[in-house]
Write a structure and sequence with these properties.
Elements: E1 4-10, E2 16-17, E3 33-39, H1 43-50, H2 79-84, E4 94-99, H3 105-118, E5 123-127, H4 132-142, E6 149-153, H5 157-167, E7 171-175, H6 192-209, E8 212-218, H7 230-234, E9 237-242, E10 249-257, E11 265-271, E12 274-277, H8 281-286, E13 296-303, E14 306-318, E15 326-329, H9 333-347, E16 354-360, H10 372-384, E17 392-394, E18 397-398, E19 404-405, H11 410-419, E20 424-428, E21 442-446, H12 449-456
Parallel strand pairs: 4-8, 4-9, 5-6, 5-7, 7-8, 13-17, 15-16, 17-20, 20-21
Antiparallel strand pairs: 1-2, 1-3, 9-10, 10-11, 11-12, 13-14, 14-16, 18-19
The structure holds adenosine-5'-triphosphate, magnesium ion (MG) and zinc ion (ZN).
Length: 458
């Protein structure tokens, strides 16, 4: 009989303490410690965890004897998903998909499940949130069927494990990790201890049976995956599904990938009959752009391996009363504040009594230094009420002394701008060395912010 004791577990980072604390000493968050019952694991259950479903126990192996022959990745019919995963699904991996409520996590996984079963892979879709009927209704709307596609409304991990053993699927979807219950943990469903145990069990099932498991995770108001950060540490791949519910675009972003590069983006569009891929995102993000508006600058941003062109919009207006407002949508507020300070000090723009609203158009989120120059140009354009040329694009990091700093992969960025018909692109002067500047587009090297503004807003 296992002993039960009470512990206080931080719901943010998983830190535990024998007594209640107002502030977590590990991650510094307030009021995140919650009382949970933990059972000290008995020797027999600890042993059970190291054996596979088939009863085999793994042994140490000489590295020279390990077979390094890579199992080929399984390509889904959604190329955008394949790219985000680093070229396709790695068999036996545990993939976590996080996202806001209603963003389309279940839709995406249901579609992928249907496609995999169409290719004669056996798929088990475990749902703790919806009944079989509800899933069937969605499947009908999305046109998903398949002979080897099993739907299983269940939350008990023991039953799920037994079913996986009997059914022997190649792919399992767990929708969602927060609704699953491991019976040897007595804490409430969705608590840190439960999530940790459920994930550990799933990991073990995936690794020892070479089953790929997709796990849905809910996201908190702050945008982090609900439950502990450790959830992200445990799994192989973490994908975030984002976008805003008012737009039809959805972005799948890889934030951790043991088998591929991170910060890859996959772009989808949500329709009644499901998600479709967006093949040329730059066109979409520039689609609604006004030709002669002020406060607009296009940046060639590199999210992962693919460049996308996005319009940065700024609206700068005098502050009516109180403190100047600074808001940023899809951009970091800190980055915007810093660039505004540099504009003030190094380019003589009087911005301290101006409100500024910044936005990356189309609901995309950008976070790389190369977008700085476009942010600066859009702010200056709005402030001076002078339009930028619609055929100009901007790339460059802005330094604190007002210098334009080099960015990575300049050739790719310039090529993308050229492909979309831009006539001029402003780049850091230091980026001009060591490669062949193309002829179809005018590449303008700039050293300072002041110089860039002078040329762009002439
Ligand atoms: N009949 C419909 N026609 C078109 N779009 C629909 C329809 N029903 C649902 N949707 C879209 O699907 C979205 C819900 O998708 P889904 O249930 O896959 O999201 P989820 O991320 O799994 O949500 P949850 O967190 O609630 O599980 C809705 O926000 C809506 O955009
Ligand atoms: Mg769902
Ligand atoms: Zn903590």
């Amino acid at each position: 009989m296992a002993k039960v004791r009470t512990q206080y577990v931080c719901q943010n980072c998983g830190y535990n303490s024998p007594r209640y604390l107002g502030r977590c000493p590990n991650c510094g968050q307030w009021n995140t410690l919650v009382e949970e019952q933990v059972q000290s694991t008995s020797a027999s259950s600890a042993k059970a965890k190291t054996t596979t479903l088939t009863g085999l126990v793994s042994k140490p192996q000489k590295i020279s004897e390990i077979d390094s022959k890579q199992t080929p990745r399984v390509k889904t019919r959604l190329n955008e998903l394949n790219r985000v995963l680093g070229g396709g699904i790695v068999p036996g991996s545990l993939i976590l998909i996080g996202g806001d409520p209603g963003i389309g996590k279940s839709t995406l996984l249901l579609q992928v499940s249907g496609q995999l079963s169409d290719e004669h892979h056996r798929v088990l879709y475990v749902s703790g949130e919806e009944s079989g009927t509800q899933i069937k209704m969605r499947a009908e709307r999305l046109g998903v069927s398949g002979d080897d596609f099993y739907v299983y409304p269940e939350t008990n991990m023991d039953s799920i494990r037994d079913t996986i053993r009997d059914l022997k699927p190649e792919y399992v979807v767990i929708d969602s990790v927060q609704t699953m219950q491991a019976t040897d943990v007595s804490s409430a469903i969705g608590s840190v201890s439960q999530i940790r145990e459920v994930t550990a069990q799933l990991m073990q099932i995936a690794k020892s049976n070479n089953i790929t498991i997709f796990v849905v995770g809910h996201v908190t108001k702050g945008g982090a995956l609900a439950g502990p950060k450790i959830l992200e540490h445990m799994v192989d791949t973490v994908l975030y599904f984002e976008g805003d519910l008012h737009h039809t675009y959805r972005i799948l972003r890889s934030v951790k990938n043991r088998f591929g590069s991170t910060n890859e983006l996959g772009i989808f569009e949500m329709h009644t009959n499901g998600l479709t891929e967006v093949k040329n995102p730059s066109e979409i993000f520039l689609e609604e752009r006004l030709r002669d508006a002020t406060g607009s600058a296009v940046v060639v941003s590199l999210e992962g391996t693919r460049p996308i062109l996005v319009e940065i919009q700024a609206l700068v207006t005098p502050t009516v009363y109180g403190n100047a407002q600074r808001t940023a949508t899809g951009l970091s507020r800190n980055r915007v504040s810093l660039i505004m300070a540099v504009l003030e000090k190094r380019a003589n723009l009087m911005l301290q009594n101006q409100d500024a609203y910044l936005k990356a158009a189309g609901g995309v989120k950008l976070d790389e230094p190369a977008i700085d120059l476009a942010i600066a140009v859009s702010i200056a354009s709005s402030y001076r009420d002078k339009g930028t040329r619609p055929s100009d694009a901007f790339v460059g990091e802005v330094g604190l002394t007002g210098e334009i700093r080099r960015v990575n992969r300049i050739e790719q960025r310039v090529a993308e701008a050229q492909k979309l018909g831009f006539e001029r692109i402003f780049v850091p002067k230091n980026n001009l060395k060591g490669w062949k500047v193309p002829t179809g587009i005018q590449v303008i090297g700039v050293t300072t912010l002041k110089e860039a503004l002078h040329l762009a807003l002439a």
